[in-house]
Amino acid sequence: MMNYNISEIHRAVESIKPYLDEYKVVLFNGPMGAGKTTLISALCRSLGSTDDLSSPTFSIVNEYDSQAGTIYHFDFYRIDSIEEAFDFGVEEYLYSDKLCFLEWSEKIEELLPTKYLIVNIEVISESERTLNIKLYKL
Predict the structure, then answer these.
(1) What is the CATH number of the domain that holds 85?
(2) Residue 92's domain spans which residues?
């Protein structure tokens, strides 16, 4: 567990990166406005992506190129049913062995693989967050 603010986001990124060789699916959990997309953008940048990084709220998934390979960034906030995730083939992404960064993953919980990284973000104040990383293996 660690506390960070936006000017120290690199510390949060560096605490996640060592897990990414083994854990390809990463769940970013936190309330609206906690900074999930900001953290994912900083993580993608640190992995060498020069793409335009933004929230895939309306497209559900964005694809980024990076030095670490293809990265898929999902935002499931606007899906209304698990069928919507099936319709765009979410399982192919999750089992592709490419990095998959997920926001609002609780909406597709039953589709998650048996191994993933959980990054919980807790809002402490307007500028401070607590980051907690958990490893999940079934």
Answers:
(1) 3.40.50.300
(2) 2-137
